[in-house]
């Protein structure tokens, strides 16, 4: 019984230690394109929702990260929504914020959480972003595919007039999909 436990523990330690150097980057730069797949807006008691079929709102996503440990990375994200299609829809705008990524050394999956600040177009608000994705490593660069869920937490007025209200938790919610290149140094 003790021999089986010893062999199992040795194999597990070898697998874990062999996988660590494969993901030993310290700094990374991620460049990608993303778009909201579904968006829900609640304002002054009225709510609306739309999908990517109603309006395509692409955004460029730039993410810098520092990974001091094999499992944890600290990140800074800049997202710029530069266009929208369909009448009555506006681009998603600019968001900047810090984040944290957890990635397993053996599997090509990761989970991220961040607190983006949406700075323009108005209204300014702070949100919470939870994301998960897959990473496909190539020789020089990695490819990634990610799904993210964004929730508003607190912010300024959604509209002007007698029925305007401040943005609260979950008033603005969107589900996005994205993909791009991941450079690790």
What would your notes on this structure say?
By secondary structure, the chain is mostly beta strands. It has a single domain (24-184), classed as Beta Barrel (Porin), CATH 2.40.160.20. It is built from 1 helix and 10 strands. The model is unreliable at 14-23 (pLDDT under 50).
Task: Lay out the secondary structure.
Elements: H1 2-19, E1 27-43, E2 46-51, E3 59-66, E4 72-81, E5 93-103, E6 109-114, E7 117-120, E8 125-137, E9 142-155, E10 172-184
Task: Produce a short descriptive summary.
The chain has 185 residues and is mostly beta strands.
Total tally of structural domains:
1
What separation lies between the terminal Cα atoms?
44 Å
Per CATH, the class reads Mainly Beta
Query: In DSSP terms, counting alpha (H) and pi (I) runs of 4 or more, how many helices?
Result: 1
Computed over alpha carbons, the radius of gyration is: 20 Å
* General shape: elongated
Question: What is the CATH architecture assignment?
Answer: Beta Barrel
Proportion of strand residues:
over 45%
**Helix fraction bin:** under 10%
- Element-by-element helix/strand order: HEEEEEEEEEE
Structural class: mainly beta
| Number of strand segments | 10
CATH fold naming: Porin
Low-pLDDT sequence parts: 14-23
Let me know the average pLDDT.
86
> What's the main sheet like?
10 strands, antiparallel
């Amino acid at each position: 019984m003790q021999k089986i436990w010893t062999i199992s523990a040795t194999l597990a330690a070898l697998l874990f230690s062999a996988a660590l150097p494969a993901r030993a980057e310290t700094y990374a730069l991620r460049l990608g394109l993303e778009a909201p797949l579904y968006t829900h807006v609640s304002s002054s008691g009225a709510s609306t929702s739309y999908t990517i079929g109603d309006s395509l709102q692409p955004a460029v996503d730039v993410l810098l990260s520092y990974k001091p440990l094999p499992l944890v990375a600290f990140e800074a994200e800049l997202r710029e929504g530069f266009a929208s299609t369909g009448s009555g829809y506006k681009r998603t705008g600019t968001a900047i914020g810090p984040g944290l990524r957890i990635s397993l050394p053996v599997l090509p999956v990761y989970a991220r959480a961040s607190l983006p600040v949406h700075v323009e177009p108005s209204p300014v608000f702070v949100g919470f972003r939870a994301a998960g994705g897959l990473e496909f490593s190539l020789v020089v660069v990695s490819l990634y595919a990610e799904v993210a869920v964004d929730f508003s937490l607190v912010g300024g007025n959604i509209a002007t007039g007698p029925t305007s209200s401040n943005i609260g938790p979950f008033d603005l919610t969107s589900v996005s999909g994205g993909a791009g290149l991941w450079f690790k140094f």
